[in-house]
Design a protein that fits this description.
Layout lengths: L7 H24 L5 H8 L3 H4 L1 H12 L1 H7 L5 H21 L3 H29 L5 H8 L1 H17 L6 H21 L11 H5 L5 H21 L2 H7 L5 H25 L4 H21 L4 H29 L4 H30 L6 H32 L1
Helix pairs in contact: 1-7, 1-9, 1-10, 4-7, 4-17, 5-7, 5-17, 6-7, 6-10, 7-8, 7-17, 8-14, 8-16, 9-14, 9-16, 12-15, 12-16, 12-17, 12-18, 13-14, 14-16, 15-16, 15-18, 16-17
């Protein structure tokens, strides 16, 4: 394959450099609304649960429509997919920012959600086409950097930009960045051809592999564990630590910066032991969330577990993408798309479960839901581990 006149590693580096900001702004569009829901509800004079649909329908669309959009876009060049999605996000974020009709805003969010998985899957296509097989896990982690940044920095950025009650400004900023990045990507992104792995039948074969389905189920459970607490981290900082809105924004920003180390750490171990690394990361996350809750209003006591929470959260996000994409390497783009869908389903389940527990037991119970989901993950880890051991044994016998 000769996508450009550059060497494959140079082409991959240039592509990943452009992917980081574009994926960040697109993923941020999903999560930035979470910290703005009370302001949206108050400004539009609608119930909070109705405003919450701006987040819920985005996630639902990504989970249900995303795989179909990815299949339809499988023959398109990555550069075209990236540019078209940035233009779509620019238009939809503008509509949300200036709109007053909730139904129209929901349509814009649904369109964004449907396009998200195909957009994110471009990274998997690039890595599979250009990275050496032994380094694909690390390259996938690099491609996932924008996803991690979007997840971790959206909340503090939204809170900071909305100071004074103007919830529309964050969406205008995202729209402007999307529209500015679109021509840059159109002109500078490498001319890499589509890397579809066969037809639709070849892609759908992934859904007939029990081990791959177990990986997807594990992603649902793990993302539920992560976001059952993370969604309410800002509320915990407000209620338990008594921080001001600016204080919460600053703390969340520092939380996101610490997560960059987690992404880097995950990239270093992803090729060698993605399953064991995932187990360690989720155990650390559950422990750190509960230690944070036990710290109460003592900021100094909460600092160390918050850093550990951020590192393990980011590592878990990255390892989830790498783990599933490597498991479905016969069709990596579709595998990553399905994982994005599984992740969004987990986020929806985790957010609802965490909110239900916190409503019944106060914000101090923020660590209960992650612990419960962690226990649900145990049989899935066991199933995947047995399958991996069986495959290793089969390969050794075959080689002999």
């Amino acid at each position: 394959m000769t996508p450009t006149s550059d060497r494959p590693e140079e082409t991959l580096s240039r592509a990943l450099l452009l992917l980081a900001p574009t994926v960040t702004v697109v993923v941020a569009a999903e999560f930035i609304v979470v910290g703005l829901l009370p302001l949206v509800a108050r400004d539009l004079n609608i119930p909070l649960v109705r405003a919450g649909e701006l987040a819920g329908w985005f996630a639902f669309s990504a989970a249900v429509a995303g795989p179909f959009v990815t299949l339809m876009a499988r023959h398109l060049m990555p550069r075209f997919i990236l540019t078209a999605t940035l233009l779509l996000y620019g238009a939809c974020n503008t509509l949300v920012a200036i709109g007053s009709d909730v139904n129209q805003m929901l349509i814009a969010r649904i369109m964004q959600g449907a396009a998200l998985p195909a957009f994110i899957s471009v990274g998997a296509s690039l890595v599979t086409a250009l990275a050496p097989a032994a380094e694909r896990g690390n390259a996938l982690a690099r491609a996932n950097l924008g996803f991690v940044l979007g997840v971790l920095l959206a909340l503090p950025a939204g809170i900071a930009l909305a100071q004074g009650g103007n919830w529309r400004l964050p969406f205008l900023v995202l729209a402007a960045i999307s529209l500015l990045l679109a021509p840059l990507v159109a002109l500078r992104f490498p001319r890499i051809p589509a890397t579809s792995s066969g037809g639709i039948g070849g892609q759908l074969r992934l859904l007939r592999q029990p081990e791959f389905l177990a990986h997807l189920a594990l992603s649902v459970v793990l993302f539920a564990a992560m976001f059952s607490a993370y969604t309410y981290l800002g509320a915990w900082m407000d209620r338990a630590l008594g921080l001001t809105a600016w204080g919460v924004a600053a703390a969340m920003f520092l939380f996101g910066l610490a997560g960059l180390f987690g992404n880097d750490l995950a990239g270093r171990v992803a090729d060698r032991a993605p399953i064991r690394a995932t187990i360690v990361a989720i155990l650390l996350l559950i422990a750190s969330v509960n230690l944070t809750a036990f710290a109460g209003d003592a900021i100094l006591l909460a600092t160390a577990p918050l850093v550990l929470w951020s590192v393990s959260h980011a590592a878990s996000v990255t390892l989830g993408q790498v783990r599933v994409t490597l498991a479905g390497q016969m069709a990596p783009s579709f595998a990553m798309t399905l994982n994005i869908s599984a992740a969004n389903l987990g986020i929806a389940i985790g957010t609802a479960s965490g909110g239900w527990i916190i409503d019944g037991h106060t914000i101090a119970a923020i660590g209960i839901a992650p612990l419960g989901f962690g226990m649900l993950a145990l049989p899935l880890f066991s199933l995947i581990g047995r399958a991996a051991s069986r495959d290793t044994y089969t390969r050794k016998v075959s080689d002999a």
